[in-house]
Amino acid sequence: MATVTTQRCANVVGLGLIGGSIAARLVESGWRVHGSDPHPGRCDLAIERGIVSDAGLNPDAEITFVAVPVLQLRGEVAAALAATKGVVTDVGSVKGPLVADVADPRFIGGHPMAGSELDGLDGADPTLFEGATWILTPTSETPDSVFALATAVANQLGANVLALSAEDHDRLIAVVSHVPHLTAATLMTLADRRSEEHASLLRMAAGGFRDMTRIASSKPGLWLDICRANREAIVATLDDFIVGLIDLRGTVDADDSAGLERLLLRAREARSNLPARVRSLEDAVEVRIPIPDRPGSAAQIFTLAAELNVNLANFEVVHSAEGDRGVAVVLVESGQVELLRGGLIARGFKPGR
Amino acid sequence: MATVTTQRCANVVGLGLIGGSIAARLVESGWRVHGSDPHPGRCDLAIERGIVSDAGLNPDAEITFVAVPVLQLRGEVAAALAATKGVVTDVGSVKGPLVADVADPRFIGGHPMAGSELDGLDGADPTLFEGATWILTPTSETPDSVFALATAVANQLGANVLALSAEDHDRLIAVVSHVPHLTAATLMTLADRRSEEHASLLRMAAGGFRDMTRIASSKPGLWLDICRANREAIVATLDDFIVGLIDLRGTVDADDSAGLERLLLRAREARSNLPARVRSLEDAVEVRIPIPDRPGSAAQIFTLAAELNVNLANFEVVHSAEGDRGVAVVLVESGQVELLRGGLIARGFKPGR
User: Fold this and answer.
1) What is the H or E stretch that residue A95 is in?
2) From CA B273, how far away is CA A203, in angstroms rounded?
3) ipTM of the predicted structure?
4) CB-CB neighbors (< 8 A) of B183 in chain A
5) For an interface test with B, which of A204, A261, A302, A303 has the most B Cβ atoms less than 10 Å from its Cβ?
6) Are B93 and B173 in contact (CB under 8 A)?
7) Is the CB of B268 less than 8 angstroms away from the CB of A241?
8) Where are the domains of chain B?
9) In the CATH hierarchy, which top-level class contains the domain A284-346?
10) Per-residue pLDDT tens for A144-179?
């Protein structure tokens, strides 16, 4: 007798680079994916290319990814919540305002840290999230089941989940993404202005300058929305950065080689510690954590792991032998088990050995 | 009867990434290359790897490349001028002080715009300069023969020559290399400081941040020397950059989308105009320019071309049919011929059609 397996279903709203890549990977993994996009013909094209299975929203989909520009997220997330019964998540670069606005517990904010020089559906790549960090921003109201599903699907897309509050996300992402982007643009326009003095200036640009300004070649639209939505954190980070540059200027001007060397050594060391894309844990150990009877426990475990910089892989919730309370099972690098256990105990969890 | 071809000879002082790559390419092209390096054993290793032919300085070498750290250049260039009869050039990142100090007409300053993530002799790569810009900084005292030889050898290494005054070089290189480097380091240390607040910050860094901070991973030593030698231009450029960032901060804070869009569009357009590595001219035309009887004429042709942003390829000096005065023959993209001719006539040259 053949075993009948029900095909898993997802919706993807917005078939650009990120939405297209999510859909492509899910279809590749055997999911049925409904897609929609405001651009006429784009969904048909995605169907033609085998990136999505059907047009429209499937009301019974387990999960709906909303992958539209930042300022359209609120409306599209609300529409998806109204039209479907499953979990809804998004992929926007700013999380605070959206997460505060959408009060529905079926919604969880998300932000996969992956991109490509290619734009739109043409850049859609099922391997885009392989080893990437996928940020989720659960709140204290997020049910374990919602967090667990979003995590499991992000893992299936090849990503590692990092759980942060929406506020932490916005404050931190300004440092590693928004301000670097604006800096690249400022550097590029400075060089462009100077090239009016000497036409060959840009012919002097070698690999370092190209690397630094690469992100300045993306389309402005997305960034206008981001700067509006995350203005406060961006301005605060720019202030810190400007102070850093003024310090540096003083160090160079004073010919303070020792001070400059300290800065450059710190930067070099920090750069070398930048984590590589995590493909698999080297020496993983299973930690079983009974989930207490309070909302948002699974998300709390992940948020704590993020504070401890512990990478959790293969999260799942199983049922304990003793009763119907769930047990979270996570895989952790063996050298980090005690760090995680210490934190869990301090936060009122009872992790097993 | 066999034709006897005399083997061309060069010296390379300093067998790091740049010196090693120069030597490797010349040996590959059939030159005999003498090498020397202060690190014990490095020259032997280079000989073992076939990157140089012999140890020491060949007094009869046509050209000597001095590829040592910026602050050691003056001494090594003087030593090379004393020990050899040929042209001496260097590859340092700052040109003004060196060019002012070395009064010998056999010396011409140089700076190839190429690098690698690999360091030292292990990074030596005969293709490193393929399509790269090689800056030469002739003075009004530089004889045509010296400029012509340095240009021809840079071309043989695969590079395109850009001629600038040493002062222009230092002012412009601060914009496309020195300040970007210091900016990358400042951004990296800012992220590192912020990661003390939240341990997972650096796990949020995706490709854009990695690109922007890549150059912060180089060794500080070189950069301490550069900051000392080019302090004035670096401080002036940092000032401009800081003003640019303060403007930007105001634009974001005021939610001035139109202003921000102008900046981002200008940056995007400038980035897309960044010249790619030139491999060959698409549709090249020969321009013949009789060299007037005044010193430094060949260098003046190139310096003018740089001001006009005209790329000259395949420069050579031939003798005219009418007499013993030289004729410079350059290859130019056909669309740029009239621009170059206009400039040449204005500067007192008599270019042919």
Assistant:
1) none
2) 10
3) 0.85
4) 183, 187, 212, 245
5) A204
6) yes
7) no
8) 9-164, 169-272, 284-346
9) alpha beta
10) 899 999 999 999 999 999 999 999 999 999 999 999
